[in-house]
Amino acid sequence: PIALALGAKLFAADVVPLVRDRVISQMATTPPATMVATLQALRDRADSRDLLPTLANTPTLVVVGSEDQLTPPDVARAMAAAIPGATLVEVAGAGHLPTLERPRETTTAMQHLLDRVATVA
Fold first, then answer.
1. Residue 99: pLDDT band by 50, 70, 90 thresholds?
2. DSSP H helical ranges for the chain
3. Which one of 17, 48, 65, 78 is separated from 84 by 20 to 30 angstroms, measured CA to CA?
């Protein structure tokens, strides 16, 4: 039940069913105690947003799916704004897992960051 409930919030509406089904299937095989401990750790973790400005001069890419329900684009925009020099990429048509939902677009964004870093180094 946890896998199905959480899985429903992970993806954009038009995700490839095979991707959605594989992730939910993997989540469903996680022992319940592990899933509960993980969710509790996520819930109880310290808020570290005040540390974001300390990432100045660190190449930073913030990637968010346009349909992310768990970390919505406005939250990602705020994170990117708090990191001096960060680049924000909003992946159209992706939910919380843009690397799985839109791998080409996500990889392109990461490659652009790596190309910029390589020219500076």
1. very high
2. 2-10, 17-28, 32-44, 73-82, 98-101, 103-120
3. 65
